[in-house]
Each structure stands twice: as structure tokens, then as C-alpha cells.
Design a protein that fits this description.
Layout (H helix, E strand, L loop, with lengths): L1 H9 L13 H9 L9 H21 L1 E2 L4 H8 L6 E3 L7 H17 L4 E2 L6 E2 L27 H27 L4 H12 L2 H5 L3 H22 L3 H20 L3 H21 L4 H27 L2 H8 L19 H4 L7 H4 L27 H15 L4 H18 L4 H6 L12 H19 L8 H24 L9 H17 L3 H16 L5 E3 L8 H12 L3 E5 L2 H11 L6 E3 L4 H7 L6 H4 L3 E6 L7 E5 L2 E5 L5 H6 E7 L7 E9 L2 E8 L4
Parallel strand pairs: 6-11, 8-10
Antiparallel strand pairs: 1-5, 2-5, 3-4, 7-8, 9-10, 11-13, 12-13
Helix pairs in contact: 3-6, 5-24, 6-7, 6-9, 6-19, 7-22, 9-10, 9-11, 9-12, 10-12, 11-12, 11-17, 11-19, 16-17, 16-19, 17-19, 20-21, 21-22, 23-24
């Protein structure tokens, strides 16, 4: 009877009596009862993924997205984008709305070529830009498939939401594979993870898909043991090949590498634990290893067929090949403090315009909520307790603790550069290494939760529980004090202070075996921190349909040739790229060396233009011919009478007006409070 009470308590349900005499918790227990082999039943497997897919279908049908492209509408018209349903577009999300979204619309205009003509030599859309293109590799980017049949708004919605749906489903399967009786824990934890500040502020396929892959790989290890038929294992392996290749195609190593360490540690711990038969687990490892090898082979083929373009990017001044030695984060300085500031996102990311929280911008300053990493002492205690009680080592716990130690050593312990380089750890700057500990904090929930269930009473004693909460609260207090010393306005009475208390309650609940309650509290925290970061819009603001876009298209039809744009990047460059007229404005990956050397024959400015950056133009007569005001921006001085412009440029779009004997005015467009002039380059006298 006591065990039944414990189980009902663990499931987080009350004593409500329903008609027929059965209590709600008894019905729930029967509804979630695992199969005889220990795997979740079909209801637990199916309901949450089906709800996620239904939500995805509704979002795609309605053309909903979270793009901040409304910033451009506000700049052009001075009013709120009519597509906006809720929230506020964020100017800091320029990598999304001013690069990926602009190139996506441009590709729609041009017919989805692999090389976009925004810059000389074409920008290879299969590399960095998360825009649709026609090439064999698009088969491994399912979030882009909608552009081959759906209207633009609906296709963009699929691109936006499919990676998020993959993350939610994969995280859910990871948790219920280990805690099959707790679908509410799986659902709440998956949603909370997806709404983490880091995920939402960095939200792009390159940020979301490595995490989705990590969850899918760890879940797949367990499901290969659950499944019996070879065809079901083959289907699962095929799905893992697709999601693995999808994550790798984003080829952003700083996010992929930390995630891979969590996956590898989990795999070692899971196989070594041997529950259910070590031989069966080794066979599962072979299946998932085969899926990984197939995805790796796809990626090798992808890289070798683009080796020249990739070499150009790696050979740039920025980003080039960036390495960060271990110990670069000092815990009481800005970079080292960053990983622990997730709970302060609601306050720290709302500074005045002149303030920058911790790092270079809001996205750089966002972090995961690492509350459940503070379960490390509980994990260590469970490790010892289970050894004493059952004379067995819980390898899952040991592997989780090893990952935490490795992460902390990379952040704060200098002097092992060679090993860190051999392990590829130094490819991830500290702010980009956060997906690793963020994912590990998620893994700690089922790993520690399952270990606690093997203890007498299936809960942690009050002394250790309170001690864990005190350590957590003390650590947050230290972080708060340091943030205040840096001029970041946080306090115990702020939103962050309340979220810290809720997170402490979540820790206590999990230690005491109330897993559903713990996941619910964690979900509340993430809803506050992440649910409103990105706006919600129906449809895209498309510069092609504006009077400015129409004027550019009309002149391009009358006077074919390359363009230069002078003025706001969002308005001028965005219009030229989206209309697909071609020219010398846009974001380049590896620069087209021959064209730049025509502009800079003596190589005086190579350090300025040899970078992955926005290419902009200025009419300033006193400016250097080429200069870089910041690492990811290249500004070129425009001179219509210079030999380069005379040879290569036909049309010019200017926000405002300029005068030159080598420019012939062709059109004038007023939009909102903005005035634009179009010109044609004519021969110098």
C-alpha cells in the first residue's frame, strides 16, 4: 500500500474520485502503465508528438512565423508591420531577418538557384544562409522543402517551426524512454528546453537543430533496444540519418561540438550500465553508429564538393579559424559569468540602449537555465548510495558528472591547450559552448530522476535536498551581486528574483520525487524567460511588393546590369537582394578574390574586404576606399567616375540623394518618411 502511495505521489496526482470509484491518479496510472518490456505504451509515445505535429500543421497552414522582419517595415514606413500578431520585432535579430530571411525571399525571386547573384561570383546558398536552393544536398534539409511547392509565407513557416518541432519531439522521447510513466514530465521539460533564453535569442536552424539531433541520438540509443522488428529499427535509423545530416548541414561547429560531447558521454554511460542486456545495448550502439557514419559520409561529400568555397571562408580575416584556449572564462568577469545568467535574462537583457549585458549584444548574452546542473551533488550522492546498496556503479550518473566536470574545466581551468585542441573543444568560444551544458541540464532530469527511484523511499533525504537548494540560491546570489557591480539592474525583488525561488522549488520537488511538479515549475520559468522573445507574425514583410522594390525591378528591366546601394542596410541592401537584381550589396561568405582585386589592385585593403561580412557602400569623399567599421561589416566608398564603378556598375539605389557627373537620375521614390533616388552610371567626361 505504501508503494502505491509513493507511486501516486511521484506521478504528481491528487485523490480526486471519479465516477465508478476509481481515483484520477489510479486512472492516470493505468493510462501511463509501461509495457512489459519497460518501454512506454503507445498512448505515451503518441499523444505529445501528435499534438506538436498538429500545432506545426496549423502554423504552416496559417503562415505563422517568429521572424523579426517587422523591423524593416518600421524603418521603411514608420509604423508597425500589419502582419504582426503579438510581441515586438527585435533589431538584434539581424542575422535572421537581414540575412537569412532576405536571402530566402531573394531565392524565391530567382527560382531557387544554388548561387545567388547578390555579389560577384554568386553567394553559395548551400553554406551559411539557411535559404532554399536547388541541389542534391537540399534532400537533407526538410525544413526547406516547402519552398518547392508551397506559397512563400507557408514555406517560410515550415522552415521556421519544423526544427522547433523536431527539438520538442526528440527531447520528449529522450525523457520518456528513461521515465516511461511520466509523459507530463517529458512534455513540460521538452517545452521548457525549447523556450530556453539561449534557444530563443539565437533562434535559427543552426542553433536549434544540433540540440534536436543531440536529443534524438540519445533517445535513439534507447529505442533501438525497445524495438524488435528489423524494419522498425531501419526506419528509426533512417530518421536519425536525416536529422543528423540536417544538423550537420548547418555546419556551425561551435554549437555541434559541445552537443556531441553530451551525446558521447551519455552513450558510454548507457552502454556500460548494461540494463536490459549489455549485448542488446551494444547492438543498439552499432545501429546508431551506422546512422552517424551515414550522416558523416553525406557531410564529407557535401564538404568536398564545396571545398574551394569553404577554404575561402576559413581563409578570411573574420571569422577565419577561431580557437579559444581552455580557461578563457574568469568566473567573476563577464565571459565567465555568462553561463550562469539564464535566470536573469528577463532583467539583464532589457538594459538601456547604451548598455550591453555581459557580452557584445543580447544574443551573445543569452544563456540556458542551468538549474538542474545543480543536481550534481545529488547525482554524486546517488552514485555512492547505489554502490553501497546494490554494489553497482550507475554509469549514467558517472557520465553525466564527467560532462559537467569537463565543461567547468574548459571554462575555468587553463593550461591544457593541447588536449582541448585534440578534443576540438577550443573550436567553441565560451558563449557558443553553452549548448553542451544546456543539454546536460535537460539530461540530468531523467538520469537523476531514475536513480532516485532506485533509492529506498524513492526520494532524497531532506538534509541533502535543502543543502542542494541552499547551494543553488547561494550561487544565484553571487551572480546577482556581480551583475549589480557591472551596472546590470537585477535584484531579489525583480522578476529574476522570483524565478530563482521558483527554480529552487523545482530542485526540491525533483529531489523529493515529485517529478511532474519539478518539470511544471521549470516550464513556468522558461515561459517567462523565452516565450515572448520572438514576435508572432502571419506572413512575411516582402520588400519586393513595396513602391521601392517595384521601382528597382522596373529599372532593372529597362537597364540590366549590376547595382550598388547606398544607405540603410535593411532598406537599400535588403531591397536589392530581395528583388534579385544582382550587384555589390549583400552578405558574402568567402570573398570573390578577383573582383576585389580589381577594386583594390595593390592589395592595400585586403584585411578589410577579406572577411565574411555585410558589404555596404558610402558616398563619403573622405572615407577610405574600403574599411571595416566592425568585424562583420565591409564599407566601400562609392565613386561613380572611378574605373571599377565605370566597368562593373550600371545602376545605383540611394537613400537620399547624391551628386556626381557620372550619375544620371532615373527615378525618385518616397516611402513613408524615406526618400530614395535611382540612378544610372554614365561615362565620365
Amino acid at each position: 500500500m505504501d508503494s502505491e502511495r509513493d507511486r501516486a505521489r511521484d506521478e504528481g496526482l491528487g485523490r480526486t474520485v471519479t465516477s465508478g470509484g476509481a481515483t484520477l491518479r489510479e486512472r492516470w496510472r493505468r493510462w501511463t502503465e509501461p509495457r512489459e518490456d519497460g518501454r512506454p505504451n503507445r498512448r505515451v509515445i503518441a499523444v505529445f508528438p501528435l499534438l506538436v505535429l498538429a500545432g506545426l500543421l496549423v502554423a504552416v497552414t496559417l503562415g505563422l512565423n517568429g521572424s523579426s522582419v517587422g523591423v524593416v517595415h518600421r524603418q521603411l514606413y514608420g509604423t508597425t508591420d500589419p502582419n504582426l500578431i503579438a510581441g515586438h520585432p527585435l533589431s538584434i535579430r539581424s542575422d535572421e531577418f537581414n540575412t537569412q530571411t532576405v536571402y530566402t525571399i531573394s531565392q524565391d525571386q530567382l527560382g531557387l538557384p544554388r548561387y545567388n547573384n547578390a555579389l560577384p561570383g554568386g553567394v553559395d546558398m548551400s553554406l551559411n544562409w539557411e535559404a532554399p536552393y536547388t541541389d542534391w544536398s537540399i534532400a537533407f534539409r526538410p525544413h526547406q522543402w516547402g519552398f518547392f511547392g508551397l506559397p512563400l509565407d507557408n514555406a517560410f513557416s515550415l522552415k521556421w517551426w519544423l526544427p522547433f518541432a523536431e527539438l520538442l519531439i526528440a527531447a520528449y522521447f529522450l525523457i520518456v524512454a528513461m521515465l516511461p510513466r511520466y509523459p507530463l514530465v517529458g512534455a513540460a521539460s521538452a517545452i521548457a528546453f525549447g523556450l530556453s533564453p539561449f534557444v530563443q535569442w539565437w533562434y535559427t536552424p543552426q542553433a536549434v537543430l544540433p540540440l534536436a539531433w543531440g536529443c534524438a541520438a540519445m533517445a535513439g540509443l534507447q529505442w533501438f533496444v525497445f524495438l524488435r522488428a528489423w524494419w522498425s529499427k531501419a526506419l528509426l535509423a533512417g530518421g536519425l540519418v536525416l536529422i543528423s545530416a540536417q544538423a550537420l548541414m548547418g555546419h556551425y561547429a561551435p554549437f555541434i561540438i559541445p552537443t556531441a560531447f553530451v551525446v558521447m558521454a551519455f552513450a558510454v554511460g548507457w552502454v556500460a550500465s548494461g540494463k536490459g542486456g549489455r549485448r542488446a545495448r551494444l547492438r543498439a550502439l552499432v545501429w546508431i553508429g551506422g546512422a552517424g557514419a551515414a550522416a558523416g559520409a553525406i557531410m564529407v561529400l557535401f564538404l568536398t564538393t564545396r571545398s574551394d568555397r569553404i577554404a575561402d571562408i576559413l581563409g578570411t580575416v573574420y571569422p577565419g579559424t577561431r580557437l579559444t584556449p581552455p580557461g578563457a572564462g574568469k568566473i567573476f568577469e563577464r565571459p565567465g559569468l555568462l553561463p550562469w545568467t539564464g535566470l536573469f535574462s528577463a532583467d539583464a537583457l532589457e538594459l538601456p540602449a547604451q548598455g550591453v549585458p555581459l557580452m557584445g549584444n543580447d544574443s551573445e548574452s543569452s544563456a540556458f537555465v542551468l538549474t538542474f546542473l545543480f543536481l550534481a551533488p545529488v547525482a554524486a550522492w546517488c552514485l555512492v548510495a547505489l554502490w553501497r546498496r546494490k554494489h553497482k556503479l550507475d554509469w549514467n550518473l558517472a557520465a553525466a558528472l564527467a560532462v559537467i566536470v569537463l565543461v567547468l574545466a574548459y571554462w575555468y581551468l587553463p593550461g591544457w591547450d593541447g588536449l582541448a585542441h585534440l578534443l576540438f573543444l577550443d573550436r567553441s568560444p565560451l558563449s557558443r559552448s553553452l549548448p553542451g551544458p544546456g543539454l546536460e541540464a535537460l539530461v540530468m532530469v531523467p538520469v537523476v530522476g531514475r536513480a532516485i527511484r532506485e533509492l529506498p523511499g524513492r526520494k532524497v533525504g531532506w538534509a541533502l535536498t535543502i543543502g542542494t537548494a541552499v547551494v543553488f540560491l547561494g550561487a544565484q546570489g553571487l551572480v546577482m551581486a556581480k551583475l549589480q557591480s557591472l551596472g546590470i539592474p537585477v535584484s531579489a525583488g525583480s522578476v529574476s528574483g522570483a524565478l530563482i525561488l521558483v527554480s529552487a522549488v523545482a530542485l526540491v520537488a525533483l529531489c523529493r520525487g515529485h517529478y511532474t511538479a519539478a518539470a511544471a515549475f521549470a516550464l513556468v520559468v522558461s515561459l517567462v524567460l523565452g516565450a515572448t522573445v520572438n514576435p508572432l507574425s502571419r506572413g512575411l514583410f516582402d520588400l519586393r511588393s513595396t513602391p521601392l522594390g517595384q521601382a528597382v525591378l522596373a529599372q532593372a528591366a529597362r537597364s540590366p546590369g549590376d547595382w550598388v546601394g547606398i544607405g540603410s542596410t535593411e532598406l537599400v541592401t535588403g531591397t536589392l537582394v530581395e528583388t534579385g537584381v544582382g550587384g555589390m550589396n549583400g552578405v558574402q561568405g568567402g570573398p570573390r578574390q578577383d573582383r576585389w582585386r580589381e577594386l583594390d589592385p595593390e592589395g592595400l585593403y585586403e584585411d578589410q574586404w577579406n572577411r565574411m561580412a555585410y558589404v555596404m557602400w558610402t558616398p563619403g569623399p573622405s572615407a577610405e576606399r574600403v574599411f571595416s567599421p566592425q568585424p562583420d561589416v565591409i564599407t566601400v566608398r562609392f565613386d561613380a567616375c572611378a574605373s571599377f564603378e565605370q566597368e562593373h556598375i550600371v545602376n545605383v539605389l540611394v537613400q537620399g540623394a547624391i551628386e556626381s557627373p557620372c550619375l544620371e537620375p532615373t527615378d525618385e521614390v518616397a516611402v513613408g518618411n524615406n526618400g530614395f533616388n535611382l540612378y544610372r552610371v554614365v561615362a565620365s567626361q
